[in-house]
């Protein structure tokens, strides 16, 4: 993914027409559109190719299965036109390798969740976050997902993965994180959903966020 603005929109609306409208409004402010279960379960996998007309699409399916099933899932996602896919790492090395193997066939990106951004995300993730981040580095993932709600953790995880992997970071706005803090802590992109798509003027809000990122 090319880093022009540092902003990824999380498109967690449940209607295709609304998603397309917002995508067309914010396209020039975002480097990617993240879609997840809310939109895909509601409108089908074809949302990926539809939104890819506006910006590269990252599918946030937090893939977490046995290697064989992971491969089948990854194939569907990349075949549908996604440029990137978010997967879990706690399922182990073999599962992660399976996802990365399929992504390579499609020239796609794999981002591994290292620690989740919500309050409950710290308890079980923090004890294993370092190992997950190291594994992401070792097996050649594109990057990790780290919490904008805990910039100090982003800084710590950056020290583990070095500069070659990307950090994409959700939790700015509705979850309380601040764009400038998390970028200063080492994130390459912030992921923002509600603050943008629930805004009266999504484009203006996206532009303000881009200013806060300050690339
Ligand atoms: N997301 C998080 N935290 C994580 C991993 C993923 O918030 O640790 C996702 C959410 O599922 C949502 C987006 O799609 O990032 C954040 O949206 P919002 O809180 O800005 O509305």
UniProtKB/TrEMBL annotation:
User: Does the record's keyword annotation contain Lyase?
Assistant: yes
Residue ranges of domain Orotidine 5'-phosphate decarboxylase in the record: 6-209
Q: Which UniProt keywords apply?
A: Decarboxylase, Lyase, Pyrimidine biosynthesis
| InterPro entries on file | Aldolase_TIM, OMPdecase, OMPdecase_arc, OMPdeCOase_dom, RibuloseP-bd_barrel
Give the metabolic or biological pathway: Pyrimidine metabolism; UMP biosynthesis via de novo pathway; UMP from orotate: step 2/2
Tell me which CDD domains the record gives.
OMP_decarboxylase_like
Binding of substrate, residues = 12, 34, 60-69, 117, 170-180, 193-194
- GO MF annotations in UniProt: orotidine-5'-phosphate decarboxylase activity
Q: Which reaction does it catalyse?
A: orotidine 5'-phosphate + H(+) = UMP + CO2
Top-level lineage group? Archaea
Q: Name one GO cellular component term.
A: cytosol
What positions constitute the catalytic site? 60 (for ompdecase activity), 62 (proton donor), 62 (for ompdecase activity), 65 (for ompdecase activity)
Q: Does the keyword Lyase apply?
A: yes
Whom does it interact with, and what assembly results? Homodimer.
Described function: Catalyzes the decarboxylation of orotidine 5'-monophosphate (OMP) to uridine 5'-monophosphate (UMP).
PANTHER family according to UniProt = OROTIDINE 5'-PHOSPHATE DECARBOXYLASE (PTHR32119)
Q: What is this protein called?
A: Orotidine 5'-phosphate decarboxylase
